Amino acid sequence: MPISPLAGEVRHLLETLGVNGGDLRGDRVVRSPIDGREIARVGDAGRAEAAEAIGRAAAAFPAWRAVPAPRRGELVRRFGETLRVHKESLGRLVTIENGKILQEGLGEVQEMIDICDFAVGLSRQLYGLTIASERPGHRMMETWHPLGVCGIVTAFNFPVAVWAWNAALALVCGNTPVWKPSEKTPLTALATQALFRRTVEAFDPALAEIAQLVLGDAAASAALVDDPRVPLLSATGSTRMGRAVAPKLAARFARAILELGGNNAAIVAPSADPELALRGITFAAVGTAGQRCTTLRRLFVHDDIYAAFVPRLAAVYGKLRIGDPREPGTLVGPLIDGAAYEGMRKALDQAARDGGTIAGGQRVLSNEWPDAFYVQPALVEMPAQTEIVTRETFAPILYVMRYRALDDAIRLHNAVPQGLSSSIFTGDMREAETFVSAEGSDCGIANVNIGPSGAEIGGAFGGEKETGGGRESGSDAWKAYMRRATNTINYSKALPLAQGIRFEV
Ligand code: NAD
Description:
Layout: H1 7-16, E1 28-31, E2 38-42, H2 47-66, H3 69-85, H4 87-98, H5 102-122, E3 130-131, E4 138-146, E5 149-153, H6 161-172, E6 176-180, H7 186-203, E7 212-213, H8 218-226, E8 232-236, H9 239-251, E9 255-259, E10 264-268, H10 274-286, E11 296-302, H11 303-318, H12 338-353, E12 357-359, E13 363-364, E14 374-375, E15 378-381, E16 397-403, H13 406-414, E17 418-419, E18 421-425, H14 429-436, E19 445-448, E20 460-461, E21 464-465, E22 472-473, E23 482-490
Parallel strand pairs: 5-6, 5-8, 6-7, 8-9, 10-11, 10-18, 11-16, 15-16, 18-19
Antiparallel strand pairs: 1-2, 3-4, 4-23, 12-15, 13-14, 17-21, 20-22
Helix pairs in contact: 1-4, 2-8, 3-5, 3-7, 4-5, 4-7, 5-6
Bound molecules: nicotinamide-adenine-dinucleotide.
Nicotinamide-adenine-dinucleotide binds next to helix 8 and helix 9.
């Protein structure tokens, strides 16, 4: 296969971002989904190399743990500054390597900057509780301590932001992260690691090894999954991956943050603002070419507005600009690869067999880019929520169904194995409150009058059921990256026992 004309620009971007030419040798071919051609090569870490990286992180841990948390925050603050300087270059590299439109590539780097800011504040707020003791002259408290080496396995669709969500928190909490990125996006990982390395060396060269990178596929993750020196693994990817790693982590009592597949839905009620709903639904369903964990995949539209609303949505779909994600005005870039296209085609074939009416879904631009996979996002009107609708197909397919009573819509909404994100579009306060109540959406994220995708970093991010149950990013997600100690301090001269037990010696 010929080398991509993008390879020159990629080399230049990698140089600008500080990637060492020596890291760009090896047998793994990296392709840009923009044209499907080779943009670089990298080497996979073998098991021994991955173990060495874990060893370096473990060796760096005691010194990093001893740095006061606000000072750890200062390093993360400086890393955020480095990212600000390099936002354009890194955002562009995300677009070339992953295929998301430039606005989203830049947004992904902005998300890294935002989580750094969040983590800086957090570094002065790793609070524990003080608890009333039942014994006189005693005080109880909780203290939070770093865990050690934190493994981070990430997916191709957020090649750098998900690492940042985890690493910024792990670092201010005093841990040393080891990152295994997706084998489909190693270049943005190398660039991010180079920017971090440069920042940490300027901060304190003695701390240079606190963050490690291990390239490779599932075999490289295995080192992190199995190594007893890794007390926490945060793994983002498919439910299939989660099913493989979770039992192994459980077997060695390691902690797991699992951020797995989603199959997100929205309900459009009769009182919904149609303009707002159309925009929210379209961004959530076709943004990132349907390759977000929070992508909108199922839509329940009320009977009374179905006939007016769905044709309007189809009209918006008809106007979507599909093409080169670097071009301003493009809204839908390519799928990551041919396997993703094949998955989409098979799902649509099944939907058709189930009685679905399909608009779109075909491959486009194959003359210009025969090795790339651009598709017209598919809108599929389904007679029912059949088995294919309950699966996550990682492509822009939106299944549309009717509902009559909100209870039925919520029941169908929850009747899938995944539980990541969800929305209701309504002007009715009772419906909105019901949807976010315990009787409503069973997802980790439940929104009103915005789509299910595009979460802010301030909230805890994650989902229920087969989405894995993890939480990362904002709120109190930091607690997963620390161990809690309960301390009882006796400042009296007596030794009363709890529960009034008498034990005289
Ligand atoms: P994937 O599961 O193929 O790969 C994800 C990562 O896991 C990669 O680094 C891969 O090398 C590694 N991996 C794969 N199999 C493994 C195994 N058996 N053992 C150890 N590591 C393994 O997923 P993908 O195609 O890169 O990403 C798409 C999937 O990720 C979708 O299902 C999407 O919903 C999910 N995702 C979830 C979230 C979330 O926060 N819930 C965020 C992004 C993506």
